[in-house]
Structures are given as C-alpha cells and as structure tokens.
Amino acid sequence: MTRPDVKVAGAAPPTTPAVEVTGVSKRFKIRGKPDPITVLDDIRLTVPSGGIASIVGLSGAGKSTLLNILGLLDQPDDGSISVFGTNATALPERGRASLRGKTIGFVFQQLNLLSGRTALQQVAVPLLYEGGRALRERRRLAEEALTRVGLQDRLHSKVSELSGGEQQRVAIARALIRDPRLILADEPTGALDPVTADQVMDLLFRTAREDGRALILVTHDLSLARRADTVHTLDGGRLTAS
Ligand SMILES: Nc1ncnc2c1ncn2[C@@H]1O[C@H](COP(=O)(O)OP(=O)(O)OP(=O)(O)O)[C@@H](O)[C@H]1O
C-alpha cells in the first residue's frame, strides 16, 4: 500500500512556478501633484520554475519598480506575489527577507561592489548575512562560485583592479553563492561594451539553463530580450506578453 505522504518514484515533478504575480499595482506620490501616478496597473506574470523571462519597456515605464517588487524589496499597493508557492505579500518584512535570501539572487547594472575588498571577500558577503558557516566554508564556496564564472585566477584581486566585465562576473558569482532558484537581473550589461556584454549575458543564460534556475531579465536591448523563453513589454503601467 502506498502512503499518501510518500512520494512515488517517477511521479511528475512539482510544477510550482518560480514567480506568480496577480493584479499587482503600484502608485507613487509625486511632489507638488495632488494625485499619485500609477506606475504598475494590474500586472499579471507567471514565470515557471527554470523559465527565462525578459521585461522590456521605455525609460520610466516602471521596469525597476516591478523588479523591486518581484525581488521582495518593495511591496505593491494591490495584488500579490508568490515566490515558489509562498505568498510573499502576506508575510511580515522578516519573512520576506528570509524568503528573498533563500531563493533570489540579484544582478544589477550598478554593481554595488566594495572596491577595497578582494573578489573572494566580495562574493562571500551574502554568506555573512546568512550566518552559521565557518570562514573556511565561506571561502570554499566563494572560490567555487568565482571558478564557475571563470575568475579562478583573480580570487585575490581587489574589485577596483578588475575590468568592467570581470566586475560584472564577480557580481554574478555573488548572486549565485547562496544557490538561488531565481535570478533577477536589471540591465546587467548596460555599462559594458557589446562584446563583453555578450560574454557576460552568455554566462548568465548558461548559468540559468544548466542549473535550472529561473531568470527574469530587465533590459532595453530587444535582441537580448528575445533570447528569453517569454518577452513581456511594460507600457502605460500594463505588462503584455509578445
Ligand atoms: N520612490 C519613488 N517615488 C516617486 N516616483 C518614483 C519612485 N520610484 C520610481 N518612481 C517613478 O516611477 C516611474 C518608473 O520608474 P522606474 O525606475 O521603475 O522606470 P524604469 O522603466 O526602470 O526606467 P529606466 O529604464 O529609465 O531605468 C518613473 O516615473 C519614476 O520617476
């Protein structure tokens, strides 16, 4: 007899989406204006586990606002966000921070790297927030993450001594260090020359595809956006799939 709580070998894999956004709106109060502006209006988005989605839109369309909400860094005014089946909107701030730390890695155009630190120290920073790992273990994981992005020979270089593309690879290694099932990337190659940008994007896509991580990419670059499984356009506060 099979107990209902025992998983049967060969059963269908879980189909819980990485992200499920329902009816999300966001308004901002503008100084000197009586009425708030609506930046996001009834947004719906589902990104399957391991899926790659891109979000495009003109400057000011609300891409970063949406990404901040998807990354649980900001709360919507209406609607809900579920991350791997957990309704994050209903959680208190601490619960959201914990879910964020366990499941999401961020790669931004602004690297937010601390220039005085070595690549190894920089990449290990998220493990300090997590707590509970010995220094030796943190170093081993950081070395592993830097090796994955091809920087095994630059472990002890200060970030200020690295090129823009190398710095962005450090940022990717840092985003991967806690093994997130979802990566959020906001114009990750916006500051790089086209050849280096391509190499960094190849790395990001490869990392997502090979490891089955979901990736949500915000970009102005349409040809880059088309490499995703689904392309979504943000315009007038509405998100439409194209
Ligand atoms: N904290 C805030 N307070 C008031 N207005 C805001 C705030 N954050 C964003 N906005 C406004 O919301 C709109 C969308 O901004 P957002 O940064 O999300 O756009 P974006 O699509 O990412 O633009 P870009 O491509 O130029 O980075 C803009 O009009 C911006 O001024």
Automatic annotation (TrEMBL):
<dbReference type="InterPro" id="IPR015854">
    <property type="entry name" value="ABC_transpr_LolD-like"/>
</dbReference>
<dbReference type="InterPro" id="IPR017911">
    <property type="entry name" value="MacB-like_ATP-bd"/>
</dbReference>
<dbReference type="InterPro" id="IPR003593">
    <property type="entry name" value="AAA+_ATPase"/>
</dbReference>
<dbReference type="GO" id="GO:0005524">
    <property type="term" value="F:ATP binding"/>
</dbReference>
<dbReference type="Pfam" id="PF00005">
    <property type="entry name" value="ABC_tran"/>
</dbReference>
<keyword id="KW-0067">ATP-binding</keyword>
<keyword id="KW-0813">Transport</keyword>
<dbReference type="InterPro" id="IPR017871">
    <property type="entry name" value="ABC_transporter-like_CS"/>
</dbReference>
<dbReference type="GO" id="GO:0022857">
    <property type="term" value="F:transmembrane transporter activity"/>
</dbReference>
<dbReference type="GO" id="GO:0005886">
    <property type="term" value="C:plasma membrane"/>
</dbReference>
<keyword id="KW-0547">Nucleotide-binding</keyword>
<dbReference type="InterPro" id="IPR003439">
    <property type="entry name" value="ABC_transporter-like_ATP-bd"/>
</dbReference>
<feature type="domain" description="ABC transporter">
    <location>
        <begin position="19"/>
        <end position="242"/>
    </location>
</feature>
<dbReference type="GO" id="GO:0016887">
    <property type="term" value="F:ATP hydrolysis activity"/>
</dbReference>
<dbReference type="InterPro" id="IPR027417">
    <property type="entry name" value="P-loop_NTPase"/>
</dbReference>
<protein>
    <submittedName>
        <fullName>Putative ABC transport system ATP-binding protein</fullName>
    </submittedName>
</protein>
